[in-house]
């Protein structure tokens, strides 16, 4: 725990230093802000790439081992069903909370935002063109597992891993055990790497925060104060709902879980990437007492299907853009939008700005100018902090809840 606390303190210090250094550059050396931002951002890039380097092999090995060790297909089906029920329920609740609060608080009506140049959204607009059911299917089903590994397509790796794990589970011990043992050793070797990589987190946090503040300055907080206030208020309500459900299931152990995942939450908040903490989250959930088979099965699925913060943000941001342009949407249209987002958002990776592509596509479908995404791009980094942190909380709760329902949650920590 001493090492954990040292890392936690180091991240907090890096966060404060990042804001201070970025503010200093923005106010004292504005002409150097852009090159400074570009260079210091590399610290964050190094950390994120180190984590991304181990995501694909870790998802593959842990998921295959988790399913193969179950050996009982009925158990796989039972655990999978419980997980999907949680994911669907949590997603609907998150979407509804976003919808309710953006309509009640109406940030698009009370905030006078400067109209941004649509060119800043050009990249997102291009990447969202041609969005269709066919593209979604292609995104889910891998053409080549090697291509999925090379591009870190988490959902495609999950699909292949589930099928391979089930095949191993039905192959018989004589053939499957050597393969399972090998993959298990690889998984724990990668988890060992996590400890080394996490010490790069403070540098990543410092680089990411300093870059944003140096470029935009402290004014960005004032200009978008109402939007950020309303979004984080709605996010706080979502947290209350998630924690209440978590307490009903886990009881007082919820507080132990929160202590366990404080570092992943902080790293996700600082780096705006829930994907960046996946390996650390696996480690901490096993230490919390979750069965490693359940963790290996549920957590990769959660990263594709259970992004609660991103879900809430999608309805909030979509209706906000409509409000800015004075487009009134009926309750029926908003419910339809919610259902569309429920389907189209499944499988988006837990990486920065992934949900913006879905928002652009959804706006196009409902006659909302997709260029409106440029209005929220300048503060999306700060919103992404909140939603990434919420994604991590949602997945930790889902994994712990399913472990508890399966009677596989130990009181004194699980085996590593």
Automatic annotation (TrEMBL):
One of its GO terms (molecular function) is symporter activity. GO terms for cellular component: plasma membrane. The chain crosses the membrane at residues 7-26, 46-71, 83-105, 154-172, 193-214, 226-250, 319-344, 356-379. GO terms for biological process: dicarboxylic acid transport. Signal peptide: none annotated. It is found in: Cell membrane. It is a multi-pass membrane protein. Keywords: Cell membrane, Membrane, Symport, Transmembrane, Transmembrane helix, Transport. The keyword RNA-binding does not apply. This is Na+/H+-dicarboxylate symporter.
């Amino acid at each position: 725990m001493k090492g954990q606390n040292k890392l936690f303190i180091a991240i907090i210090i890096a966060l404060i230093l990042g804001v201070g250094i970025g503010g200093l550059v923005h106010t004292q050396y504005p002409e150097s802000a852009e090159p400074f931002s570009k260079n210091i951002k590399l610290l964050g890039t190094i950390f994120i790439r180190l984590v991304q380097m181990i995501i694909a092999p870790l998802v593959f090995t842990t998921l295959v081992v988790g399913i193969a060790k179950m050996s009982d297909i009925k158990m796989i089906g039972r655990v999978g069903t419980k997980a999907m029920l949680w994911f669907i329920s949590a997603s609907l609740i998150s979407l509804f909370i976003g919808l309710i609060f953006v309509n009640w608080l109406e940030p698009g009506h009370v905030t006078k935002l400067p109209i941004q140049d649509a060119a800043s959204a050009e990249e997102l607009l291009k990447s969202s063109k041609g969005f269709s059911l066919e593209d979604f299917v292609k995104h889910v089903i891998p053409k080549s597992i090697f291509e999925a590994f090379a591009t870190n397509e988490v959902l495609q790796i999950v699909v292949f891993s589930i099928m391979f794990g089930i095949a191993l589970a039905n192959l018989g011990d004589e053939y499957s055990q050597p393969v399972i043992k090998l993959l298990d050793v690889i998984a724990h070797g990668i988890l060992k790497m996590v400890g080394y990589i996490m010490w790069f987190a403070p540098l990543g946090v410092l680089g990411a925060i300093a870059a944003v503040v140096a470029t935009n300055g402290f004014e960005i907080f004032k200009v978008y104060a109402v939007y950020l206030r309303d979004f984080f208020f709605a996010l706080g309500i979502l947290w209350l709902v998630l924690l209440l459900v978590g307490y009903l299931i886990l009881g007082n152990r919820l507080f132990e879980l929160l202590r366990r995942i404080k570092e992943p939450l902080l790293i996700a908040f600082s780096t705006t990437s829930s994907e960046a903490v996946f390996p650390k989250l696996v480690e901490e959930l096993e230490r919390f007492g979750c069965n490693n088979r359940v963790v290996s099965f549920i957590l990769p699925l959660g990263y594709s299907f259970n992004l609660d913060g991103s879900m809430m943000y999608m309805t909030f941001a979509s209706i906000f853009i409509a409000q800015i342009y004075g487009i009134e949407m009926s309750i029926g249209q908003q419910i339809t939008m919610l259902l569309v987002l429920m389907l189209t958002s499944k499988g988006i990776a837990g990486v920065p700005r992934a949900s913006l592509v879905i928002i652009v596509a959804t706006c196009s479908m409902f006659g909302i100018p997709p260029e409106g995404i440029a209005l929220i791009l300048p503060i999306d980094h700060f919103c992404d902090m909140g939603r990434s942190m919420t994604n991590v909380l949602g997945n930790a709760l889902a994994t712990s809840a399913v472990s508890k329902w399966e009677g596989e949650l130990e009181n004194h920590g699980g085996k590593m």
